[in-house]
Structures are given as C-alpha cells and as structure tokens.
Amino acid sequence: MNEIMILSIHFVTLGISLAIPIGPVKLEMIKNGLYGGFWPSWLVGIGAVCADILFMSFIFLGLSPFLHERWITVCMLITGIMMLSYLGISTIRNSVTSLPLIEENTKDVKKPFLTGFVIALMNPYNFMFWFGVYGGSLQSIPSATSELLRIGLSFCIIVGIILWNLNVAFTVHFFRTPINEFTIRWLTRLAGIGLLAFSSFLTYKLLKLFL
Length: 211
What we know:
Layout: H1 2-19, H2 24-36, H3 38-60, H4 64-67, H5 70-95, H6 110-121, H7 124-138, H8 147-175, H9 181-210
Helix pairs in contact: 1-8, 2-3, 2-6, 2-8, 2-9, 3-6, 3-7, 3-8, 5-9
C-alpha cells in the first residue's frame, strides 16, 4: 500500500510538472482569463485535459505505433500551425480594438473548451510526453499490479494537470481585478505574440521533416 501511495504522489507530481511550463494552452488560458475571468480560462484547461485523456487512452489501446506514422505527424503539425497562427493573430488584433472586457459568464462554453482541446491535441510537446515520458513512467509500476490500478495511477497524472490548471485559472481571475484595461490589453497582446512564436516553432519542426 505504501508503494502505491508513493507512486500516486509521483504521478500527481509528474502531471503538475507537465502542466507548469508556459505553452500554447497556458497562454490561451491566460488570455481567456484576462478577458473573461475564471470560467473561460478553466474551460480551456478542461479541453486540454480531455485531449490528454485521449492520448492516454491511445497508449492503453496499443495505438501508439500508428500515431508515430510520418503522415500523422505532418497532419498534426499543419493543423497546429494553422490553429496557433489564427489564435495569435486574432488575439493581437482584438487587443488593439476598443472592445470592452467580457463579463464572466458560462453561456458560450464550446469555444474555449474546443480551443483548449485542439491546441493540446496538436501540440508536439504533449505528443512527446504521452508517448515518451508517460510510456517510460508506466514501467515504474510493478508488473503484478492490476490493469485497473495501473489506469488509476495514470489518472493521477490527470489530477496533477487539473490542479495546476485550477491554480492558473484562479490566479488570472483574481489578478485581472486590480489592474486596468490598458494593462490587460498589453498582457493579452504578449500572449498573442507567444502563440505566434509557438506556431513558428511548429513550422520549423515541419520543415525539418522535409529537409
């Protein structure tokens, strides 16, 4: 039992470590949080977590060799480039308009959720983690462990990711209150530039496949 507890803490910590770096998902969470508050930011994170669960399911179903096919990689990179470029450009464009800040609401939940899902699904860093680091971490689970317990330990990674996403959503929500609209627009603009930077990186990775 002690060994299982230690492994659970290990996998939760692994999930938090995966979620901490500032990537396209976190930039999108920050942008949505600055303009819409907690719920839009949180829904981006939930969408990303659903993509993570999908990756984890692929590994358990034994589909990882299929997803390493060259044409799958190319399609993922192209989709990721298009998605991040669109989000980056639209974010920068919206940051210079005179539109008022969006009041926090949960009416339009599909857009932030789907945005988080697609960004995480097409992010090569997520791909490398789930089919690299996570696959290796599974080897640390004793071979005698039941399949159900292995799945439970794997979901500890998801718990870690959710905990950090909650931290980001709450932090941005309360951070936006004491600052003025001008500052929020500049922070949003920087988030848009960051999204374009990630799009440029994916373009570089795509070109390397053909050179």
